[in-house]
Amino acid sequence: MSLLHFALARPEGVPPFPEGWGKPPSPVQHPGIVSVLYSGVGTYYYRCAPGEGSGWTIVGTRTAEWVVPSHTVELDPEVELLSMEEAISTLAADATRFKQDFETLSPSLHAQFAFQPTAEWCRYQMIRDQESPVYVASPPKFWGARIQHGSEIHYIVWTYRPSNDPAPKVIMVHLRATSETFAILFKAVILVVQSEKYQLIEAWNMDSELEGAIGETGGRLYERTGQLPALKWYGTEKEVDWVGNNK
């Protein structure tokens, strides 16, 4: 893993390749200023440094979790449930707005970066567990929900994790919502999750503006210990914020 830095990073972002490590790896076509991974082994990758310094640092483990209730939930008539393709196209159509939001963030003392959501990224999140026997036996029908909010489309797009560790869950991949529209859309999530017989709903690093809505909809916040996002910054800045670290 330490070798990977020399393949991914701009040459000026890493120290000289250690002589005792043999032949350096070939760099990718477009070396970057940052690399990220998701760790299932805690802080292990922090030790995987490019010869000196540190490797990947865990960031943003704040997680919202809801236990799926058993009571009946009514779907707002203005909410539209989305197939996989409709959910992907809704997210992709919102990508320009994501870029605009990032460019208009308040000034920060830290460097900031974000990965713009794409249709391909969204599709990968949805199909990564498609070989699960649960999927094969009963493929999910709905993968998102949206509602018109003034001139905007507000939405939640999700994916399914059929593993029993600790229980089958739905994870929100991306969303655009206010506290008001989140509560409306979240009822759609619950309705679908109940029909698919999943037990938990999860979201990563939701915007602080929606923290009140998490409690109001019965959720809790905690710091998770699995699937941990980690980054390695190859720039000169000492502090950096990963914006949109949602999934």
From TrEMBL:
<dbReference type="Pfam" id="PF22998">
    <property type="entry name" value="GNAT_LYC1-like"/>
</dbReference>
<feature type="domain" description="LYC1 C-terminal">
    <location>
        <begin position="70"/>
        <end position="247"/>
    </location>
</feature>
<dbReference type="InterPro" id="IPR055100">
    <property type="entry name" value="GNAT_LYC1-like"/>
</dbReference>
<dbReference type="InterPro" id="IPR053013">
    <property type="entry name" value="LAT"/>
</dbReference>
<protein>
    <recommendedName>
        <fullName>LYC1 C-terminal domain-containing protein</fullName>
    </recommendedName>
</protein>
